[in-house]
Amino acid sequence: MSRPVIGIIGNSYLLHDEYPAQVAGAMNCEAVREVAGGLPLIVPADPRMVSVADVMAACDGFIFTGGRPNVHPREYGEAETEAHGTFDHARDELTLPLIRALVSAGHPFLAICRGFQELNVAMGGSLYPEIRDLPGRDNHRMPPDGTLEEKFELRHKVTFNAGGVFHRLMGSQEVMTNSLHGQGIKTAGDRIVIDGHAPDGTPEAIYVADAPGFTLGVQWHPEWKAADDPVSRPLFESFGAAAADWQAGGRNGRRKSA
Question: What pLDDT sits at residue 258?
């Protein structure tokens, strides 16, 4: 059987400050290929180029990637402030309805960093614009300087709910993760289960309760050296297995019978 096709949600960038491009990080593609066992396919994050129905028909699973622009606060009923940073309205317009459609269909996806925040907003939740400004919270942003290894180094523990989805998946209730985000969950969306927290109480691991498919989201970046990381590997392996199961059921919206 061929590899399951994994749609990797792209981000809009200007190359050389003038050439518009839709890109995805190589480490996301490598994690999909080497650990999840899938065929990586970059999906333009723009509803002018692709539709929800089209990409769902083309892909067996999805990675909602991190990205510098943030979900616009209008998507959760709040006003824009300077603290909210930059935005990508086109990505919001594609990913939020796509997530809701995937949840409903049982179509598997893994949401990472911005994708984690998109998952919460898509389900009706809200976000804090800047975690480090909250009393008692740590700075979760990546170091402004240094090598990639230094930016993606393990920085804090994440503790999962005892006996929960992530505890069972990881085989441990406590793991170490990197941290490269500024925003975070303020109010959890409908059916969003917060299954893991950083030491300062920041939500780090979520899933959708009673969803028929794989709906896991993490605030850290598991794609970094995923093949060698004891936390990243089971996450991508389980996602890849869910995508393969979807593929085996066909791409006509039907999951394989249990």
Answer: 26
The predicted pLDDT at position 250 comes to: 59
DSSP string, 50-114: --HHHHHHH-SEEEE---SSBPPGGGGT----GGG--B-HHHHHHHHHHHHHHHHHT--EEEETH
Task: Tally Cβ neighbours within 10 Å of residue 109.
Answer: 27
**Does the structure show a pLDDT above 80 at 159?**
yes
- Please list the active-site residues: 113, 221, 223
**Coil, strand or helix: which one is 165?**
helix
Residue among 143, 167, 160, 158 nearest 200 (CA): 158
Gap between the Cα atoms of 184 and 4, Å rounded: 31
Rounded Cα distance, 236 and 190, in Å: 25
pLDDT score, position 256: 40
Classify residue 229 by its DSSP letter: -
pLDDT at 254 over 80: no
Read off the pTM: 0.93
Q: How far apart are CA 117 and CA 189, in angstroms?
A: 10
Mean pLDDT over the full length of the chain: 92
**Phi, psi values for residue 110, rounded to 5°:** -125, 125
Q: Which of helix, strand or coil describes residue 246?
A: helix
User: How many angstroms separate the most distant Cα atoms in the chain?
Assistant: 52
Does residue 120 carry a pLDDT above 90? yes
Q: Bridge partners of 8?
A: 42, 63
Query: How many Cβ atoms from other residues are within 10 Å of residue 257's Cβ?
Result: 6
